[in-house]
Amino acid sequence: MAPPLLTDAPARMPEEQRQGAVPAGLGSSAARRQLFLEMCRRRQAGDSFARIAQALNERGLRGDQGGRWYGASVRNFIRRMQPGAQSRAKS
Known about the structure:
- By secondary structure, the protein is mostly helical.
- 52% of the residues lie in helices and 0% in strands.
- The protein has one domain (26-90).
């Protein structure tokens, strides 16, 4: 089953989570930052986005909307978490 579209997100979900900015289950900014740093270290070590996603799924971590991680979702998460990502998105 395909992941739900962002517009299909429940209204009770916080706005930033509906937009995909906060992966479900990673509620604290410290947890998101720690995951971001882990992803960056793995990328620098040569892991592909898909391999990182596989490792996260094996550990039972859930991605955006509470679903599985995919290579593209890892890539997008890294892009969103990079310093200056919010200012670039609004330009």
